[in-house]
Design goal:
Blueprint: H1 13-35, H2 39-42, H3 51-61, H4 63-79, H5 88-103, H6 111-120, H7 127-134, H8 142-159, H9 163-198, H10 216-225
Helix pairs in contact: 4-5
C-alpha cells in the first residue's frame, strides 16, 4: 500500500499512530522479502525503503529471466518423449504442468493443441492408437486423453510384455552363474567321471545308484514332453 503522509507538528494522534503502524509493517515486509532472496541476486536489485517500490524493482529484474524460462519450457516440451518407464499418466501431467507455466507467462497453449502435442510425444508402439485418434471427428479433452492413454498402456502391457526386461534379468543371472559358480563347476567334472566308473550313474539327474532309463525323473520328463519311453535307451553306452 502507498505510505501515508509523514506526521508533522500539526498531525493528530490518530495520524501519527497510523504512520507508525505503516512504518512497522513496511519494515517487516522488507525484511521478509529480502531474506527470501539469495544474497547474490539481492545485490543486483536496487534498494528501497518502501516495500512496494522494492517489489517493483524485483519484478523488473526478473522479466528477462521469465523469458529465458519460457524458452526453456518450450524447448523441453518440443523434445519430451514418453520413455515407457515413468507411466503415461505422469508423462501427460508433466506436459500439462509445463503448459500451465507458459500460460502464467501469457503464452497460453490451447487444450486441443496440447492434446495433439502430447500424442506426437508417444512412442511407435502407440502408432495404431494415434491413427485411431486422428481418424475420429471428436476432439479429446485432457481428461479424456489421460483416460484413453492409460487404457492403451494397460492393453500394451498385456499384449506386449516387457521381453527386454526379462532378457536382461536372465543375462545377469547367467553372468552371475559364470562368475560365482564357474570354479565350482570345474571342480565337479572329475567327480562325475569318477561316479560313472564306480557304479550305475544317471546322466539325467546326475545321481549314482541307477541308470538314466531307470530314473523316475527322466520318465516323468518324457511323459511331460509327450515322448514315448524306450526301455532300451542307453544300453549301448558303455557307461550304462
Amino acid at each position: 500500500m502507498d505510505p501515508p503522509d509523514a506526521p508533522n507538528a500539526e498531525s493528530t494522534v490518530e495520524q501519527k499512530r497510523s504512520y507508525e503502524q505503516w512504518e512497522r509493517s513496511n519494515r517487516m515486509c522488507l525484511m521478509v522479502i529480502k531474506n527470501s532472496i539469495s544474497v547474490a541476486i539481492r545485490g543486483a536489485i536496487p534498494d528501497s525503503e518502501n516495500e512496494k517500490t522494492y517489489l517493483e524493482y524485483v519484478e523488473e529484474q526478473f522479466k528477462g529471466t521469465s523469458k529465458a524460462h519460457a524458452s526453456t519450457l518450450i524447448l523441453k516440451m518440443l523434445t519430451s518423449k514418453y520413455d515407457g518407464v515413468s507411466g503415461i499418466r505422469e508423462h501427460i501431467m508433466k506436459m500439462s504442468d509445463m503448459s500451465n507455466k507458459l500460460k502464467s507467462m501469457d503464452m497460453e497453449i490451447s487444450e486441443g493443441f496440447l492434446v495433439h502435442f502430447i500424442m506426437t510425444s508417444l512412442p511407435a508402439s502407440y502408432g495404431p492408437f494415434k491413427i485411431n485418434y486422428n481418424t475420429q471427428k471428436e476432439k479429446w479433452t485432457m481428461s479424456e486423453l489421460i483416460a484413453m492413454c492409460v487404457q492403451e498402456e494397460e492393453r500394451l502391457k498385456v499384449e506386449r510384455p516387457d521381453v527386454a526386461h526379462l532378457t536382461t534379468t536372465n543375462s545377469k543371472k547367467r553372468k552371475g552363474n559364470r562368475q560365482g559358480g564357474g570354479k565350482g563347476n570345474i571342480s565337479k567334472v572329475p567327480k562325475i567321471g569318477a561316479s560313472v566308473s564306480s557304479g550305475p550313474y544317471c546322466k539325467f539327474c546326475r545321481f549314482k545308484g541307477h541308470y538314466q532309463r531307470e530314473c523316475p525323473k527322466f520318465k516323468a520328463w518324457l511323459t511331460k514332453k509327450g515322448i514315448p519311453f524306450n526301455p532300451d535307451i542307453g544300453k549301448k553306452a558303455k557307461s550304462d
